[in-house]
């Protein structure tokens, strides 16, 4: 497979995003694996390069230019001198994060880049800049959705935790859970495990919403009303979904190691165990989009901004996962195109197709 162009959105310029990006590509071996294309500005890159004292050379290009293979390409999405206020959420940092993300998405859509790795944005800064989405996931679901459901999926090797609801205040979660939502999330989860992760018959554990998965109806009824019926319907369609499992003991007892995927009902139910088990190596992947998008499992870490102490491992894992998933998708498409080809009647066979009748 040819070397892929990996688009990278700059994230919040006041946080640690650029630090982990630049630290990652200071290892020049990565330039043999892919061609990075960062959407931002060479001035901002130079500022952060001074913080890490890095050796990395970069190639400045304009929007629309072809990225140069083997180089760290920086697309100048703006030419202004930007006021960088390390460690602070500002309207400006939100605005530039938004510009970079929009430009990166355009380049995915027009094929200049093959996959996207997003550096962390700060939700407060994005709100100051009037960005009308709580996170990347919701924005990308609108821009790159396929008219079906998407899934926020946290990945660290064999541990894959998807969320039924994303960035939703806790008091709204129970109202959002219904049978159709769980079914749609399980379908997109199943498809991603097969196509993006290459698991032929994936198993998915579904967590309950209530304490002890409602303890037989003593502590709520969403499990019996919505979650179990969704699991039963999906099983009939061949999806190996199981549950609902009480969430509290699920990870402590090691049950999470027995499934290819775990569907949690809300953000912290899934992300607390995920980050406790994976912080530093975990990756946030958005399943169900037209294009591959990953991100590190950490945020803007304002407390570390400018200190040259941020660990780039999670960003590097996000890059590797983007490459792996893009290859897995391509392989799946090729394999199935071949299978279709093989099933087609060879041109030199004469006669009508046999008509099969139902008994
Ligand atoms: N992908 C994303 O865009 C993304 C992901 C998570 C959080 N966020 C956003 O980031 C902002 C800050 O979030 P937060 O404070 O809850 O989480 P955070 O991940 O930024 O920080 C949590 C803790 O982890 C430490 N940490 C984070 N990344 C690190 C790294 N690479 N190396 C060493 N230590 C690291 C920080 O110093 C802090 O102590 C919020 O606005 C949040 O919504 C964005
Ligand atoms: N829920 C994510 C996390 O805690 O890692 C984070 O908020 C980023 O989400 P987006 O990828 O939607 O921005």
UniProtKB/TrEMBL annotation:
Pfam families listed in its UniProt record: PdxA (PF04166)
Keywords: Metal-binding, NAD, Oxidoreductase
Alphabetized GO MF terms: 4-hydroxythreonine-4-phosphate dehydrogenase activity; metal ion binding; NAD binding
Keyword Oxidoreductase among record annotations: yes
Highest taxon listed in the record's lineage: Bacteria
Enzyme class: oxidoreductase
UniProt cross-references to InterPro entries, sorted A to Z: PdxA_fam
EC code: 1.1.1.262
PANTHER family assigned to the protein according to its UniProt record, in alphabetical order: 4-HYDROXYTHREONINE-4-PHOSPHATE DEHYDROGENASE, D-THREONATE 4-PHOSPHATE DEHYDROGENASE
NCBIfam families attached to this UniProt entry: pdxA
Protein name: 4-hydroxythreonine-4-phosphate dehydrogenase PdxA
Source organism of the structure: Phaeodactylibacter luteus
């Amino acid at each position: 497979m040819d070397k892929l162009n990996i688009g990278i959105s700059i994230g919040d310029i006041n946080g640690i995003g650029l630090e982990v990006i630049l630290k990652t590509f200071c290892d020049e071996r990565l330039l043999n694996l892919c061609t990075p294309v960062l959407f931002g500005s060479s001035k901002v890159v130079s500022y952060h390069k001074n913080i890490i004292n890095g050796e990395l050379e970069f190639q400045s290009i304009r929007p629309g230019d072809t990225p140069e293979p083997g180089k760290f390409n920086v697309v100048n999405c703006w030419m202004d001198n930007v006021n960088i206020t390390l460690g602070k959420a500002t309207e400006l940092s939100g605005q530039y994060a938004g510009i970079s993300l929009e430009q990166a998405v355009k380049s995915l859509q027009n094929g200049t880049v093959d996959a996207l790795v997003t550096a962390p944005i700060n939700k407060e800064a994005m709100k100051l800049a009037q960005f009308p989405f709580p996170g990347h996931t919701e924005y990308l679901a609108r821009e790159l959705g396929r008219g079906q459901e998407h899934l926020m999926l946290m990945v660290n090797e064999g541990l894959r935790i998807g969320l039924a609801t994303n960035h939703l205040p806790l008091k709204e979660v129970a109202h959002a859970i219904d049978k159709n939502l769980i079914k749609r999330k399980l379908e997109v989860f199943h498809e991603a495990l097969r196509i993006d992760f290459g698991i032929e018959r994936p198993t998915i554990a579904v967590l309950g919403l209530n304490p002890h998965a409602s303890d037989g109806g003593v502590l709520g009824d969403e499990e019996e009303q919505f979650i179990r019926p969704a699991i039963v319907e999906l099983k009939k369609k061949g999806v190996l979904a199981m549950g609902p499992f009480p969430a509290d003991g699920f990870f402590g007892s090691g049950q999470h190691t027995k499934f290819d995927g775990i569907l949690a009902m809300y953000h912290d139910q899934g992300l607390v165990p995920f980050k406790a088990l994976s912080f530093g190596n975990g990756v946030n992947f958005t399943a169900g989009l037209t294009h591959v998008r990953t991100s590190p499992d950490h945020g803007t870490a304002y407390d570390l901004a400018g200190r040259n102490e941020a660990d780039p491992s999670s960003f590097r894992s996000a890059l590797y996962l983007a490459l792996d998933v893009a290859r897995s998708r391509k392989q799946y498409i090729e394999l199935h195109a071949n299978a279709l080809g093989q099933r087609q009647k060879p041109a030199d066979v004469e006669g009508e197709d046999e008509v099969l009748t139902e008994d």
